[in-house]
Amino acid sequence: MSTAATNALRAELRTAPAAAREPAPPAAFAPAQGDELRAVDVSKSFGGLKALDQVSLALRPGEVHGLIGPNGSGKTTLLNLLSGYYQPTSGEIRLGGEDLSGAPVRRRAAVGVARTFQKPRLLPMLSVLENAVLGAWTHAQAGFLATTFALPRVGREDRELMDRAAELLHGVGLGHVLHRRANLLDHAEQRFLEIARALAMRPRFILLDEPAGGLTPQEIEHLADVIRTLQGSGIGVLLVEHHTDFVFRICDRVTTLNVGRMIRHGLPDEVRNDPEVIRVYLGA
Q1: Is residue 245 part of a domain?
Q2: Sign of the CA dihedral 81, 82, 85, 90?
Q3: pTM for the structure as a whole
Q4: Within a domain: residue 111?
Q5: Does a structural domain hold residue 24?
Q6: Nearest to 263 by CA among 277, 282, 275
Q7: How many structural domains comprise the chain?
Q8: How far apart are CA 37 and CA 39, in angstroms?
């Protein structure tokens, strides 16, 4: 990631958020004291299957927190609970003093929780820029009538959102493909487009679901640069990833799950050298 791209991304992330229909969250680079995204003793059952069993996790602003474990350990289920795609069977999801346990995806986005997916969910026939600007929907001011009658402020707002999305795309290294259709991107470009779209929400926290999957070593280094820039801007990053060397190198703290339960939480070296983590996941 070039110095110019890093600076552009950092500058854009430090732009104060536009007003939204719902109260705008604090700027990502100046989080409130104690403002954490937390899962508190959450459990999730699907019929008779308990996918998560009393798991707790706290994601802090400006932190990169790794979440690892074998397939089926409950990592994506926890991401879905934090982002509102699932509601917990028991326990709570909290952001600062607000209980989000029953809140839908729209509310999580409005208060600053964004995420990406294992398989990028893009609109294939739209351009890279159009896909990225869709992430800004929580900040759109224009109502139905204003849009229908093409009032001047709608045009101004559209331009501002497009300009911001373009800057974010430049920042993640996609400035050269702004007008290319999303279905013509390679795998790595789709990954970084999803991140840019999530950042267009102006999040306080971003949940990355296996972002390094299928990337080359050089592309993983580029991803590391992007994540460090997010961290330096005060955004909390939850990183779900099977590339454990990458996790232990870039994360401040790491949580390990196995069959729906937390088996170890702590500093990267503590987790890496834990006998139970080695036994169930890392191997001898």
Answers
A1: yes
A2: positive
A3: 0.84
A4: yes
A5: no
A6: 277
A7: 1
A8: 7
